[in-house]
Write a structure and sequence with these properties.
heterodimer; A: 351 residues; alpha/beta; Rossmann fold; 3-stranded mixed beta sheet; 10 helices; disordered N terminus; B: 309 residues; Glycerol-3-phosphate (1)-acyltransferase; 7-stranded mixed beta sheet; two-stranded antiparallel ribbon; 12 helices; 9 strands; 11% strand; globular
């Protein structure tokens, strides 16, 4: 693994911050924005990728009860005043100062790069190298909780998938789609952290397609006027509302919760029903033609769906959430109509 | 004044399409409804009432999690009923032995095309009281085939995996299993009614979920598409499990021969033991089921007077 590419990783584990070490994080106001008050005794929740849609939703929910520290490359201009936001790259060494300077109670890792247009190298350095560093800091400073947002995509849509995948199913997402490799690796890293550091409660959440007002592949697909469907295929699909995922993260932050949890939405439906319910008219294309056309559109930058993602329109990749229901106490509250209504709100026409 | 339409050709057609269903869908619906009416007249049974009589487990949004669609299934059941009652004139013995609740229906497999599954399924739907919804475990590669991969789930068929079977049995459903698999269905004519090796999975599943096994002997399937050879190189090339050479196809007879089907449902087995036992222990139980089916098949063959009568 190319660990040294983006600067050396802190080698020797530094001792847990005590009085012997000065706290350098606060004076560095260049990177710290916002009014930082005294550290809360029970500790703050660090949210990476806080400026994404999910991150913002989570921050708005969390800041009422907890102190929230955000890290993102992007600015967070309309944040609530009590949220401390660090506008920095997760790969930078300044990241360590955040841990050193503050009592961090939990880390919620949402800073995952999904954009398929980015190069493999950049995605790897974001999703794997940066996450690895984050894990290093967590073990150094003995943070007691880690919540990682993975996804059901790591299982991958396969023709031989059981109808409902449990948490023990193998992660075959990268088998036919190389772009998923780093996301699978991220999930695996979180899992190995779970075993290596039993003192830290690690929670890996694997939700099915998250939709709502987010801009991700599933929502963008459903917003199309004429979404492509593969001729002769109509797999069952699960969707989950973004706010349900946020609630699942909040539940995962409770002390005592650890493990991997699949997150499911309000029931599954055939893809064609979902598309029609959202108001789209499916454009049915034979599979080889769809592949060639999508490849070309991708090359010409007319579409942002890689051709390998067509497998999601052909095969099932649904999860069994019974574990989340019993152990996490999670139950989706947003009904399907509400979910699809929120998707439709941001409808736009794509060539 | 004469009302003028748009100058764009087919614009009106497009508008009607936007408002309602596509013409293709409407055509399918009207043909399907006609088939259902014909089937109801011929068979003398209410197809819709039969579909309504089965127990399903819809999710929060009213869909079956495995994709079962009553609309498609009623057309399929109508066609199956015509095949069952008229074309193959199926005789069913001992269907009352199928217990309520979860059950594995284990049968011999034959006939190149899985019409034996259709016959068992329609017997459960039309002859059992109350009707039982048959789920069968289909080969994994069918999920890769366009149209088939859509049709099978809509008819309630499920990709064969232990997880799926366990979930269905926990929902107290009935599952049709052919432990011979592709080996059994692609037998050549000289090996007819000789059971090939059974897989062990179904017994482990029955032990794990405490499910009774109902043995079924299917007579008549072997003669529907007599195959004289299995052309293996071509099968490999087409990635099919077998490529049967069927003389009747050369004479232009693409439909199966109208043999008379006989289905014998046996007494249910209630096996007990550890599902994780050694293969040798499980094999004994499998042998028990297999030999029962073989003897039921042999008895059925002795009793029948002819292939077509």
């Amino acid at each position: 693994m190319a660990r040294g590419v983006f600067g050396p990783v802190a080698g020797a584990p530094a001792p847990v911050p005590t009085t012997s070490q000065p706290k350098p994080s606060e004076p560095r106001s260049g990177s710290v924005t916002g009014t930082h008050t005294k550290v809360a005794t029970e500790g703050a929740v660090l949210v990476t990728g806080i400026c994404g849609r999910l991150g913002k939703l989570l921050a708005r929910e969390l800041h009422r009860t907890d102190q929230v520290v955000g890290v993102d490359r992007r600015a967070f201009p309309d944040r609530p005043k009590d949220i401390v936001h660090h506008e920095l790259d997760m790969r930078r060494k300044k990241m360590k100062d955040i841990f050193r300077g503050r009592n961090i109670r939990a880390v919620v890792h949402l800073g995952v790069l999904h954009d398929p247009r980015r190069s493999d190298r950049e995605r790897h350095s974001w999703n794997v190298v940066a996450f690895q560093k984050l894990l290093d800091y967590m073990s150094q400073y003995e943070v007691p909780k880690l919540v990682v947002l993975s996804g059901a995509n790591v299982y991958g849509p396969q023709p031989n998938n059981p109808q409902f995948l449990t948490e023990d199913a193998p992660l075959l997402g990268a088998q036919h789609f190389g772009g998923m490799r780093d996301l699978v690796e991220l999930d695996m890293l979180a899992q190995s952290f779970f075993w290596k550091h039993p003192d830290t409660e690690t929670v890996v959440l694997r939700p099915c397609h998250i939709v709502g007002r987010v801009h991700n592949a599933a929502s963008n697909y459903l917003r199309l006027e004429r979404p492509i469907m593969v001729m002769g295929f109509d797999p069952m699909m699960q969707l989950v509302h973004e706010k349900d995922v946020v609630r699942a993260i909040q539940l995962a932050l409770r002390p005592g919760v650890r493990g991997i949890f699949n997150i499911r939405g309000p029931g599954e439906m055939p893809l064609s029903h979902l598309v029609r319910k959202t108001g789209g008219r499916p454009r049915v294309v034979p599979s080889p033609l769809a592949k060639v056309a999508l490849d070309q559109l991708w090359k010409l930058r007319l579409s942002n769906f890689p051709a390998q993602e067509l497998d999601h329109l052909r095969y099932v990749c649904m999860v069994d959430d019974s574990r989340a229901r019993t152990e996490l106490g999670y139950e989706p509250v947003h009904p399907i109509d509400r979910v699809l209504k929120d998707v439709r709100r941001l409808r736009y026409q794509v060539a | 004044m004469v009302e003028r339409g748009s100058i764009v050709p087919f614009a009106g057609w497009r508008r009607t399409r936007l408002l309602g269903e596509s013409p293709l869908r409407q055509a399918v619906r009207s043909i399907g409804d006609r088939v259902v009416r014909i089937a109801e007249e011929v068979v003398g049974q209410d197809i819709d009432a039969r579909i309504a009589g089965i127990k399903t487990h819809p999710n929060e949004v009213g869909h079956d999690p495995f994709g079962f669609d009553p609309e498609t299934s009623r057309y399929a059941l109508a066609v199956a009923a015509l095949l069952h009652r008229r074309y193959f004139r199926t005789q069913v013995y001992g269907i009352e032995r199928v217990p309520q609740g979860r059950v594995l229906i284990v049968a011999n497999h034959s006939g190149q095309l899985p019409l034996d599954a259709v016959m068992i399924g329609s017997a459960l739907m039309l002859d059992a009281n109350p009707p039982r919804f048959p789920r069968s475990m289909v080969e994994t590669w069918t999920a890769e085939l366009p149209f088939i991969s859509t049709l099978y789930p809509r008819l309630g068929q499920v990709v064969g995996s232990p997880e799926n079977a366990r979930r269905l049995l926990r929902q107290e459903e009935s599952i049709i299993v052919f432990p011979e698999g592709a080996r059994g269905i692609s037998k050549t004519f000289d090996q007819r009614y000789q059971l090939t090796d059974f897989g062990l999975g179904f017994v482990r599943l029955a032990l794990e979920t405490n499910t009774p096994i109902v043995p079924v002997a299917v007579i008549g399937g072997e003669e529907q598409y007599p195959s004289v050879a299995d052309f293996k190189p071509l099968a490999k090339l087409l990635r099919m499990p077998a490529f049967p050479v069927m003389p009747q196809v050369f004479f232009g007879m693409i439909a199966p021969l109208p043999t008379k089907y006989r289905l014998y449902f046996g007494e249910p087995f209630r096996l007990s033991g550890d599902p994780d036992d050694d293969d040798s222990v499980i094999e004994e139980k499998v042998w028990l089921v297999k030999s029962t089916i073989q003897s039921m098949v042999n008895r059925g063959l002795r009793e029948r007077k002819g292939v077509f009568i």
